[in-house]
């Protein structure tokens, strides 16, 4: 499978680049797609989680031509139902890409549910907005968001799988995006799988895989351990959780002052939305400029954060000039909320591959490895792989956070091979392997 995998990855990359150029020529401005009424839910939602609310066709310029040469492929923009952490029904959007190639594995054609990496907190940052052409961009107000999952979606499509990429709760749809909220991200992923089963018409027996890196790695890790109780109907065969933020206290400490330190604001805004009692105690410890930055971040994408708030240090926005995390440590209610996000206290019943770079400068290696140890101690089937990429421009995220994503995700013996083996029912020699 190695040489075939390399050819497919190369073709997928070529398709992404060629598709982006074609989209730019045909639209004038790549990704200048409007934010329409599609994202506004109806007054009444279906009662079942994972039910389809509405769909509409979407041209896919970044996906390689179909088996018969058709281009562009047509995906579907989808609204489906899910649940907030307290069980309240909500609407979520995402992108569904039906199979356009023969399935290259064994058994029935599977569906791969992709949980995206960090895209932002503003509605315009929803991955589906950037999915057609690869980029969503506006001038007034200035904002841009890229389709970070073009490669993963295109690769699995080229392998013959169906693909569903969730936007997460509150991205595109009304309400704040509850960034790194363990329960809500898990719900969005698992209900996306249900929605995909409904769209394909193949039912709950459909083989499924969950795929995610960084924020997405945390989302699928949380989904893996919540699936036995929240979605026991799903046939999940395997999971890749790359660089999962399993312990937010460690992550917040690591990312503060890094290139994308503004994501701390995404997290705080999401926690306040679900726990309004935190607003006053948080704002009491922040300067007026700090409160304003939190408000600004709530409408920004990760690209905007890099341009407007690079290397953000939260101590510049607190009254005592200590980091925001150090201030949170003095607020028991805030620490309880952070502790509730800890992944690893429940046992997943599906095999999981966790990967992490030893020198990851954004999502710390130690807490990812601890997740593997926690799950192993519960008897879960876990493979943990360490990426030994040496330090590259520490603090910039680009080398030591994104580097392992490509090496471990798309390498010859990486996550694609692992997930294919799970979908092909290849036995795992050890229930717990940590290296």
Give a written overview of the molecule.
It holds the Pfam family LIP. One of its GO terms (biological process) is lipid catabolic process. Residues 1-22 form the signal peptide. With 435 residues, the protein is of the alpha/beta class. The chain has two domains: 2-247 and 342-434, Rossmann fold (3-Layer(aba) Sandwich); 248-340, 434 Repressor (Amino-terminal Domain), CATH 1.10.260.130. 38% of the residues lie in helices and 18% in strands. It contains 15 helices and twelve strands. It has helices spanning 2-27, 127-131, 150-158, 182-200, 215-230, 248-255, 263-274, 278-284, 288-297, 302-308, 324-328, 332-340, 365-377, 402-410, 415-423, and strands spanning 52-60, 73-83, 89-97, 111-115, 135-138, 143-146, 162-166, 207-213, 235-242, 352-357, 382-387, 432-434. The strands form two sheets. The protein has a ten-stranded mixed beta sheet, sandwiched between helices. A two-stranded antiparallel sheet has the order 5-6. The chain starts with a helix and ends with a strand. Residues 3-35 have low confidence and may be disordered.
């Amino acid at each position: 499978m190695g040489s075939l995998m390399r050819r497919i990855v190369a073709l997928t990359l070529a398709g992404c680049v060629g598709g982006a150029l074609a989209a730019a020529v045909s639209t004038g401005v790549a990704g200048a797609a409007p934010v329409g009424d599609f994202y506004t839910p109806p007054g009444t939602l279906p009662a079942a989680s994972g039910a389809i609310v509405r769909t509409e066709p979407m041209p896919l310029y970044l996906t390689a031509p179909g088996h018969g040469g058709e281009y562009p492929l047509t995906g579907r923009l989808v609204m489906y139902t899910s649940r907030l952490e307290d069980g309240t029904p909500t609407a979520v959007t995402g992108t569904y890409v039906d199979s356009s190639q023969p399935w290259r594995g064994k058994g029935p054609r599977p569906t791969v549910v992709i949980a995206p990496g960090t895209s932002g907190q503003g509605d315009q940052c929803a991955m589906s907005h950037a999915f057609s052409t690869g980029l969503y961009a506006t001038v007034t107000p200035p904002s841009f968001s890229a389709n970070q999952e073009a490669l993963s979606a295109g690769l699995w499509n080229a392998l013959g799988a169906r693909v569903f990429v969730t936007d997460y709760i509150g991205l595109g749809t009304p309400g704040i995006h509850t960034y790194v909220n363990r329960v809500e991200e898990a719900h969005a992923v698992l209900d996306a799988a249900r929605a995909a089963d409904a769209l394909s018409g193949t039912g709950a027996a459909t083989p499924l895989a969950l795929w995610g890196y960084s924020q997405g790695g945390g989302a699928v890790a949380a989904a893996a351990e919540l699936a036995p109780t929240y979605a026991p109907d799903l046939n999940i065969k395997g999971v890749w959780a790359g660089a999962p933020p399993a312990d937010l206290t460690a992550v917040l400490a690591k990312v503060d002052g890094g290139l994308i330190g503004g994501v701390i604001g995404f997290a705080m805004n999401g926690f306040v939305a679900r726990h309004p009692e935190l607003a006053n105690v948080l704002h009491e410890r922040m300067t007026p400029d700090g409160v304003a930055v939190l408000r600004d971040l709530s409408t920004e994408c990760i690209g905007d954060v890099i341009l407007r708030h690079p290397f953000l240090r939260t101590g510049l926005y607190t009254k005592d000039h200590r980091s925001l995390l150090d201030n949170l440590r003095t607020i028991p209610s805030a620490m309880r909320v952070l502790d509730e996000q800890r992944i690893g206290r429940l046992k997943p019943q599906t095999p999981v591959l966790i990967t992490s770079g030893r020198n990851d400068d954004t999502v710390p290696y130690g807490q990812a490895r601890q997740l593997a140890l926690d799950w192993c101690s519960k008897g879960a089937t876990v493979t943990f792989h360490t990426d030994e990429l040496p330090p590259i421009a520490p603090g910039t995220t680009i080398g030591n956070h994104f580097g392992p994503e490509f090496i471990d995700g798309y390498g010859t013996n990486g996550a694609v091979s692992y997930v294919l083996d799970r979908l092909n029912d290849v036995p795992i020699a050890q229930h717990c392997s940590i290296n």
